[in-house]
Amino acid sequence: GAVVSQHPSWVICKSGTSVKIECRSLDFQATTMFWYRQFPKQSLMLMATSNEGSKATYEQGVEKDKFLINHASLTLSTLTVTSAHPEDSSFYICSAEEGQGLKTQYFGPGTRLLVL
Amino acid sequence: DAKTTQPPSMDCAEGRAANLPCNHSTISGNEYVYWYRQIHSQGPQYIIHGLKNNETNEMASLIITEDRKSSTLILPHATLRDTAVYYCIVRAGNNRKLIWGLGTSLAVNP
């Protein structure tokens, strides 16, 4: 149980284009999902907390107009990187909370983005 | 949330137990100890968590000292597939954010 998927697993795009990444909880409903970014040899950095039916909460320094998050259902959250630039190239990982009371985060396999 | 300290790297022979330490000397009474691991180029995988008592599941055992200032994750029979970065994270029950350090890079050798 507690499986989270991401699509696509990797994407290459040209500078200036937008890229959408999907995060799905496959066998549970998640009112809250999280988006992380990880640069090579670094740890995970939380970008935003996505709540179903409401606006996402962004961490300090993360541009909300550049990283658009939509959490339209209890099993799907999307992250759109708008007007992507080479510095946005990174490993993007989502997680979803599962459980009653004390919730545990389960992670997707990640999406590797390369902006040329 | 309390900060954690882990050794940057460890080695273990295949088939032997891997004991990964974590120091969390400033942990508060309502904070849980979580362990995740990240295999290269994959998303993190949840392993186990605990508050006070030792915990065991199909993946690992978590031993928390009586004063809760440190803990050890035990992989009883390490395999090559256990090679990964292991993260020890402390979080309060009502705080959903996970703060990630650099973890311990465990290499399981044949």
List the helices and strands and how they pair.
The complex is a heterodimer of chains A (116) and B (110).
Chain A: E1 4-7, E2 10-13, E3 19-25, E4 32-38, E5 45-51, E6 57-58, E7 67-73, E8 76-81, E9 90-98, E10 104-107, E11 111-115
Parallel strand pairs in A: 2-11
Antiparallel strand pairs in A: 1-3, 3-8, 4-5, 4-9, 5-6, 7-8, 9-10, 9-11
Chain B: E1 9-13, E2 18-23, E3 31-38, E4 45-50, E5 55-56, E6 61-64, E7 70-75, E8 84-92, E9 104-109
Parallel strand pairs in B: 1-9
Antiparallel strand pairs in B: 2-7, 3-4, 3-8, 5-6, 6-7, 8-9
Keywords:
heterodimer; A: 116 residues; mainly beta; seven-stranded mixed beta sheet; four-stranded antiparallel beta sheet; 11 strands; globular; B: 110 residues; five-stranded mixed beta sheet; 9 strands
Structure description:
- The radius of gyration of chain A is 13 Å and the shape is globular.
- In chain A, strands 2, 4, 5, 6, 9, 10 and 11 form a seven-stranded mixed beta sheet that branches. A four-stranded antiparallel beta sheet of chain A has the order 1-3-8-7, with no helix packed on it.
- Chain A has 116 residues and is mainly β.
- Chain A contains no helices and eleven strands.
- Chain A has strands at 4-7, 10-13, 19-25, 32-38, 45-51, 57-58, 67-73, 76-81, 90-98, 104-107, 111-115.
- Chain A is 0% helix and 53% strand.
- In chain A, a hairpin with a 6-residue loop joins strand 4 (32-38) and strand 5 (45-51).
- Chain B is 0% helix and 47% strand.
- Chain B has no helices and nine strands.
- In chain B, the strands form two sheets. Chain B has a five-stranded mixed beta sheet, with no helix packed on it. In chain B, strands 2-7-6-5 form a four-stranded antiparallel beta sheet, with no helix packed on it.
- The N and C termini of chain B lie far apart (38 Å).
- The mean pLDDT of chain B is 94.
- Classes of the chains: A mainly beta (116), B mainly beta (110).
